[in-house]
Amino acid sequence: MITLLLIFFPLIAALLLLSVKSEQAKNIAIAAAVAEFVIAIFALTQFQYNASIQFEVNYDWIKSVGISFHVGIDGISMLMVLLTSFLVPIIILTSINTHYKNANYFYALILAMQMALIGVFVSLDGFLFYVFWELALIPIYFICLLWGGENSAKITFKFFVYTLAGSLFMLGGLIYLYLHTAGLHSFNISALYAAGRSLDFVQQGYVFWAMFIAFAIKMPIFPFHTWQPDTYTVAPTQGTMMLSGIMLKMGTYGIIRWLLPIAPLGVEHWAYVAIALSVIGIVYASCIAIVQKDFKRLIAYSSIAHVGLISAGILAINVQGMQGAMVQMLSHGVNVVGLFFIVDIIQKRTNTREIATLGGIRNVNPQFAVLFLIVLLGSVALPLTNGFVGEFLLLNGVFQFNAWMTAFAGLSVILGAVYMLRSYQSIMLGETNLITSSFAPLSGNEKLVLVILSAAIIVFGIYPKPLLDIAAPAVNQLIEGVQIALVK
Amino acid sequence: MIKLVGLIPLLPLIGFVIIGLFGKKLSKSIVGLVGSGVIFGSFALALAIFFELKGGTQKEFTIDLFTWISAGKLSIPFSFLIDPLSSLFLLIITGIGFLIHLYSIGYMSHDEGFARFFAYLNLFIFFMLLLVLGSNYLIMFVGWEGVGLCSYLLIGFWFKNTAYNNAAKKAFIMNRIGDLGFLMGIILIFITFGSISYHEVFMQANSYSSGTPVLTVIALLLFVGAMGKSAQLPLYTWLPDAMAGPTPVSALIHAATMVTAGIYMIARSNILYSLSPVAMQTVAIVGACTALFAATIGLAQNDIKKVLAYSTVSQLGYMFLALGVGAYTGAVFHVMTHAFFKALLFLGAGSVIHAMGGEQDMRKMGGLKKYIPITHLTFLIGTLAIVGFPGFSGFFSKDEILAHAYENNKLLWVLGILTAAMTTFYMFRLYFLTFKGTFRGTHDQEHHLHESPKSMTIPLVILSMLAVVGGLIGIPEVLGGKHFLEEFLKPVFADSSSRIIFHLPESTEYMLMIVAVAVMATFLYSAYTVYVKNKTLPAAEGEELQPLHKLVYNKYWIDEIYETIITKPLNFISEALHKVVDNQIVDGIVNGIGYLVNWTSSTIRLAQTGNIGFYVFVMVISIVLILFTRLM
Amino acid sequence: MSIIQTIPIEWYLFLSTVLFAIGVFGVLFRRNAIIIFMSIELMLNAVNLLLVAFSSYLSDSKGQVFVFFIMAVAAAEVAVGLAILSMVYRNTNSPDINNLNKLKW
Q1: Which of A55, A161, A181, B123 is 20 to 30 A from A444 in CA distance terms?
Q2: Among residues B331, B334, B549, B517, which one has the least CA distance to residue B424?
Q3: What is the nearest CA distance from A164 to chain B, expressed in angstroms?
Q4: B620–C28: do the CB atoms touch at under 8 Å?
Q5: CATH architecture observed for domain C8-95
Q6: End-to-end alpha-carbon separation of chain B, Å?
Q7: Taking all residues of chain B, what is their mean pLDDT, rounded to a whole number?
């Protein structure tokens, strides 16, 4: 039952928000998001540390075609649910100083999106997964369209059509699998797993590409990434955070839950191509990030680099890579939300995101400089920050697949330092100028958010074991299952 | 006592947290007290552990704290290893660290970032201690990158200055290049041995036969890390730039401790190297070349700190030469003596700069002997130690390295001796230009000249004593000594020393010593002739130089070459990727598909003429066609 | 033997084919809406004729049922169609269908 609560509580809150005045919306939204987080924490306390699926709920939905409302939480889902319910209140909190028009609709959309995201992470039915997957797109489309910056109509349209087109491939793949299920056709996850594994490797290859393209567009992976920098740049800060912090993980989660176990032979057969794309994307995006002039855009590109490594680690099919991906998904969520918030703070005070025009903020606001530095270090994966744990495990996982690709992917360690330190120096260090000399101190909520995020960065860098432990049994089981399928 | 080893890194961390959080509210004296006090506490603990280890029979202790990362069969505990090697490094780090903290109280007393400085220094000591205490490669890596971070923060300590910031960034990025190699090495170690703890890895490695390719690859990857951190060719250019940081930082991080991390790492992994002759040769050659190369640059520099920086690079090369020829003890010995005399020289230089009111150009110094007598005396001792004057600490450690090099390969020995000759020349050039002759600065500067405060001179005096007697723990047997250090470190290098046997006739050893001393004396005299007797001065800025001199003076234009072949192409490629590949090609295809749909639609809709007759005509034709095909 | 069968079936086929063809060509080539309308009726009636003929020859009344259906539908169609036509005429002052070309790209 708690799963249902997790899914539908944000929706109820969202509906409630539609009926309240714009001014009250913020507080109600925060309260609802925090309550959701409390529910998630409660779920965690009830959670058994084994590989089984827990809090399972299974209702028939459209019985005649084998579609059911089947949801449940295992270790992998648990982490994603925690990430979502942790980040949404933070994201809402970042908007306290921003006064959006029709704020009640804005927050209602965010909460509606949270509902869809949680739904994606707990679905155990292919059709339901697809429904939530598409459902998540609608609120973010309106958030970006209505509250976005210049040229938002054109850019969000491209984003919408691009990701929608990708999802169609996935739908095709799911239906293809559905038609191969034994007996009465069903969209149930175990039926789809069995159906996928009954195919030969050529057919699995079709399924692989159909699903992988959908996930690759969502993450995004080179060369399906071009919607991303524009959309991230134009979206309102909270929209960008939702997109990069959580929505991006739909793609990586999709690979873990809906691709590896369904088409192991297909993955194995095409892993070289897919990992090569991911790894090329890492270096490619890092290089492009170096020459960005807009800080928000720079972070958008760095996000492509990070997610490429996650995808490569998952596709390498081993425990280290997969665990690394789990940790890195959480870390990336935390770090990227922090970075985008930093952009927001700077932009609010200086009305610019142009790296070259800023400078010397450290002189006026050392506190901000320290917090920025911590988030930055998490992002460049310095040891004892959360970024390092994931990155080390991921590189380890990819190394087991192919050493040269790892060396190439590892270039991001260097290039990441290059673009991050360059922009830090240009924004924070040096002498102040006209734009930055009156940089206002951090407000209470800004401090709170950055301190929470920094604490998360350091704590999970030093002691990531709780996170690793949650996912470990489920990950081990998944990898074992895939490896058995491969041996056959 | 050994149970308390966790406190050793914890104390500096506590210091960092206290100063970092409350530094602004505390007075400078309290900050100084806390900052140096915690290090002294660590030093006392390290001393106790050292004696316990020396007296006891068990030479290796592992203290587990908690499981850090685990995934599948990979399990990395956060645990510490105490053995002779790490305890020796603990002493060097905390001991010299404490002296430099003490010195900094005086040196930084007028700086507004006083608290920040001590916070960074404490953090640095914390990471450095992690580096040497870790019981597996990943903990070492934590410290490794952590000290890199502190180095970045401290080089760019005066963050308003763009040049300093650039130097800091350069140091961090160059270190990261090495770190990538190190990280790859660690992962390969895990894949090869299924573990990354020293104990497990070395035990398994011992059963491999010499020259196994995977061991060579591991050893070389680790060495890439060492090249970055310890500023070897070709990744050395960050270290001279790193002199942008305050002088105590140069002394602590960029001379005595952090840059020797690479030597520690290879000494720690000695068995992996002993099993891989190729890697050993590489280490020796890179070390010797760096030693010579940096020494030549040192000959023509005019900035007092730059000379010392190149001298550090050169001495680090010496240590790698030692490692490469299998003289692990010699390398560690030289790390120790070098820590003493180089820290002393840097602090001395700091004292000179302090007296000169921030001036670092030697062409504007001269005759400082009578103004700052304590600094002068200690500096002279440091100089004598570094050039290997008989009896001083540098003499013994250098001698050991050269003897091993001679046995391994005569050419390496020649390179070593050449380096020693140049070292003598540029160090005495530095000494004579600074302290002898007449004062060449402005009148204001002359008026300002004064000896440094007690908190600065006391560390100088202590270090100068260490620089004199430090060599006594490693007197070679031919001179009737009892190489104490070798005895102490024996358990660490046991597996390697059974593979690399060192044997040189006594007469040869005497001969080598005599040659070394003779070369040293010759070049000392020639430096004296040039700079004291003939009172030659280095060319002023803008003066036309001899081609060779120009080449060396401009540091072989290595920075410019890197700029041309790496930085600029990288920027160019990135720009091209962004403007052409990403915006035109990749995005172009996506937009192209969009345009294609638009174009197709707008073409097809032309069929929608609005003419009803046409529609009906098409309808009829279509019906006929359908009937035709169906009925045929 | 009904009166219908006094004429051979081929003649019915010829006649209704000719009538249908006249209807088709009328629709295709005339521009006056009324005439097009009448041509459609002609086609319908050609089919009706054939249905009745066959119904008689095969002694199956289903064909005649169809004819009644078609007549009913045609009546309804005439009602709607003439209404449209009168509206067209009122708006364009001509029964020419080529005036109705506004609905295009």
Answers
A1: B123
A2: B517
A3: 13
A4: yes
A5: Orthogonal Bundle (1.10)
A6: 103
A7: 86
At A44-84, the pLDDT tens digits run: 999 988 888 889 999 999 888 889 999 999 999 999 999 99
Q: How far apart are CA B106 and CA C5, in angstroms?
A: 131
Mean pLDDT calculated for residue range B109-135: 90
Compute the distance between CA of residue A9 and CA of residue A13 in angstroms, rounded to an integer.
Answer: 6
Cα–Cα–Cα angle for A61, A65, A68, nearest 5°?
A: 30
| Contact map slice: B 148-177 vs A, CB within 8 A | 149, 152, 156, 159-162, 165-166, 169, 172-173, 176-177
| Closest by CA position to B28, among listed B141, B95, B107 | B107
Q: What angle do CA A450, A372, B257 make, to 5 degrees?
A: 125
What residues in A contact B163, CB-CB < 8 Å?
none
- Its ipTM equals 0.91
Q: What is the DSSP string of B590-630?
A: HHHHHHHHHHHHHHHGGG----HHHHHHHHHHHHHHHHHHH
Contact C98 B611 (CB under 8 A): yes
Among A161, A406, A414, select the one facing B173 at the smallest CB separation. A414
| CB neighbourhood size of B299 (10 A) | 16
Across the interface, whether the CB atoms of B610 and C100 are under 8 A apart is answered: yes
The pair of structure tokens assigned to A481 is 């299952």
- The sign of the CA dihedral B12, B16, B19, B21 is negative
pLDDT at C1: 57
Residues 6+ apart with CB under 8 A from B577: A284, A287, A288
Q: What is the rounded distance in angstroms from the CA atom of residue A120 to the CA atom of residue A130? A: 8
pLDDT at A354 over 60: yes
Q: Search chain A and give the residue with CA nearest B191.
A: A400
Look at A429 and B159 and tell me if their CB atoms are within 8 Å.
Answer: yes
Domain residue ranges in chain C? 8-95
Alpha helices by DSSP H, listed for B230-276, are: 238-241, 247-251, 261-268, 270-274
Closest by Cα among B223, B232, B207 to B310: B232
Work out the pLDDT band at B24, boundaries 50, 70, 90.
Answer: confident
Please check whether residue A162 touches B, CB under 8 A: yes
Give the H or E element holding residue B337: helix B328-355
C-alpha dihedral, B294 to B300 to B303 to B309, nearest 10°: 10
Question: C-alpha angle with apex A210: A206 to A215, nearest 5 degrees?
Answer: 140
Are the C-beta atoms of residues C97 and C33 closer than 8 Å to each other? yes
Of the candidates C24, C29, C103, the beta carbon closest to that of B610 is on C103
SS (H, E, C) chain A: CHHHHHHHHHHHHHHHHHCCCHHHHHHHHHHHHHHHHHHHHHHHHHCCCCCCCEEEEEEEEEHHHCEEEEEEECHHHHHHHHHHHHHHHHHHHCCCCCCCCCHHHHHHHHHHHHHHHHHHHHECEHHHHHHHHHHHHHHHHHHHHHHCCCCHHHHHHHHHHHHHHHHHHHHHHHHHHHHCCCCCCCCEHHHHHHHHHHCCHHHHHHHHHHHHHHHHHHCCCCCCCCHHHHHHHHCCHHHHHHHHHHHHHHHHHHHHHHHCCCCHHHHHHHHHHHHHHHHHHHHHHHHHHHCCCEHHHHHHHHHHHHHHHHHHHHHCCCHHHHHHHHHHHHHHHHHHHHHHHHHHHHHHHHCCCEHHHCCCHHHHCHHHHHHHHHHHHHHCCCCCCHHHHHHHHHHHHHHHHCHHHHHHHHHHHHHHHHHHHHHHHHHHCCCCCCCCCCCCCCCHHHHHHHHHHHHHHHHHHHCCHHHHHHHHHHHHHHHHHHHHHHHC
Chains contacting C (3+ CB pairs below 8 angstroms):
B
Cβ atoms of residues A316 and A398 within 8 Å: yes
Q: What is the pTM of this model?
A: 0.89
